[in-house]
Amino acid sequence: MVSDKRISKETDPGRQRALLTEEAQRNKLLGSMGPSRLKSLVQKMELVAFRPKQVLHVRDAPLGQAYFPLSGVISLVMPSNGKLVEVGMVGDEGVFGLPLLFGTRSCPMTAISQVGGHAMRLPADRFVERSARDSGLESALKGYAYAFTIMLAQGSVCNCAHSIEQRCARWLLMAHDRVHSDDFALTQAFLAQILGVRRPSVSEVAEKLQRRRLIRYWQGRMTILDRRGLEGLTCICYSIIRKEFERMRLM
Asked: How much is the pTM?
């Protein structure tokens, strides 16, 4: 990956735009636009880094930016009984900022980075303007919005109907799909917050998964050892969600 420092020091505007276009294609939604159309869009975008647990948006605050992750994962959480519970996640398949597409500048979700990474950031006004006049981008965004809606709906079903073990396996698989690495930073406290359960419950599940050699967890690092085993353990919700993203060619 080209670092944001290298790009910021690039003196030739043409070369800078070429580097940014190359990076932007790592996001599947942006990549679907094609290099020539994407090149004009990246002139309005900024490559930014985000660290683990960084808050990118506070619920109900005005949406000033849209984030297209290139790496890392953004968790979207909402309050429930004094806790923050994850309702969706965004990785290199999509964008955080969908409410802008539908004419609203606020979002009731808080966006927190699960796993640190990089994103292409686009000012809200530019996002609205470009999606309105670029039918290709608008079509890609609507396809993503559809798949994202299925994620929200099926995740709600999962949280009500399935065990913590199944939900944990689903979450790990979804994160694995977006991180593209078997190893990533994750604390049990953060996973408990995401799943909306008590930390001892997560510790118990993590121990079970380790005994079955599906994962390895040590000092805030999660390693997926047996993805197929996790797929056999989780509920049908994971395959339903993934299928819709695949159908939209975003996974």
From this structure: 0.91
